[in-house]
Amino acid sequence: MIRPALYAIVAAAIGLVSANTSVADTFLKVGVTAGGGYDFAARLMAPYLEKHLGGEGVIVQNVQGASSLNLARQMQVSDADNEIGLILASQIVRARLNPDAVAVDFSAFQWLGSLNSVTSICLTSKESGVDTFEKLISEDIKMGATSQTGGFYQLAALVKNSFGGKYEIITGFKGLTDIEAAVQRGEIAGYCGSQLDRYIRNNQKGTYNLIGSAANEIELDGKIIPSFASFASNDETQAAIKLFSARDEIYYPFFMAPGASQEAVMRYRAAFDAVMKDPEFLKEALAVYIDMNPANGSALEAKIKAVSESDPATVSRLIELTK
Asked: Is 58 in a helix, a strand, or coil?
């Protein structure tokens, strides 16, 4: 199994890899800093893309800033045939909720595929005594988050506002490591926004209660944990929760610029599809992810179109619920 320490090793190697960019024929640009899950996904993919592109170089570059929007805005006006982008999927949903702030038309991009889907979950510490959905929304506890525009806050707010939760959302944490340290110190009871595969991979069952996920029912250790959407009292709220969860279905979206040629797009789509069927890649990926649910370019494009054309009433309801 690949250990979390590998992320640090990968990050440390970035300077060495970047120094060799002159040999690259393809640049895989990641809209986040080095060392995290998205960066790791890109570096996991890169050698297999090289293999299925006939051996040409694929160099991963980090284009950080504005939670992937710097990269998206750069590529929105590009016509490069040798650049692939990977951005935070949450920005695709956010663009539907607040198009002026995002200022990116994601429906214009040319999509290659999504590496995997995820199941975002809410967790509470064993010490908190909050071990069910009913207790989560009825207890006066504190849940941790980074900022109000981040995924940790938004999922916690969605659950709280959908069901009248009493808990307080504490913002200002630097990231997940900071949040989990606060849980260990007893300063907060838990958080929303981690993923099910991380919960299982890191064997967190002994320290955290798995309360549930937004739209996916979870079966774990013979127990069924209902989705939050299943508790919704009306169709409008349920639809809003499912729209929010669209980001989880397309969690690692790879794309090319609107101006890239169709010939280049088809070539990279074919390479992406070949990687998703490569036994060596799947063996390595399944050492990290508990399951693989990739989407090809056409499927990903359809999912993003559905988000961009989602019902205005659903959009308004989701905006209200994530405040």
From this structure: strand
pLDDT in tens, 276-288: 999 999 999 999 8
**Chain length of the chain:** 323
Residue 52's Cα: distance from chain center in Å?
25
C-alpha 16/C-alpha 84 separation (Å) is 21
Euclidean distance between CA atoms 214 and 226, whole angstroms: 9
Residue type, 112: L
C-alpha separations of 278 from 4, 134, 266, 271, 286 in Å: 24, 44, 18, 10, 12
Q: Which residues of 159-191 are buried (b: 16+ CB within 10 A; e: fewer)?
A: bbbbbebebebbeebeebeebbebbeeeebbbb
Per-residue pLDDT of 204-235, as tens digits, reads 999 999 999 999 999 999 999 999 999 999 99
Distance CA(13)–CA(62), nearest Å, equals 13
Written as six digits, the tokens of 155 are 């999922």
| pLDDT, position 147 | 87
Q: What confidence tens digit (pLDDT) does each residue in 176-205 have?
A: 899 999 999 999 999 999 999 999 989 999
Helix, coil or strand: residue 120: strand
Distance (Å, whole) CA 260 – CA 46 = 20
Cα-to-chain-centroid distance, residue 103: 20
Instruction: For strands 253-256 and 110-114, give the pairing.
Output: antiparallel
The pLDDT-based confidence of 13 (bands split at 50, 70, 90) is: very low
322's enclosing H/E stretch is none
Report the run of H or E that residue 281 belongs to, with start and end. helix 279-285
Tokens at residue 8, please? 């640090």
The whole-angstrom separation of Cα 75 and Cα 104 is 10
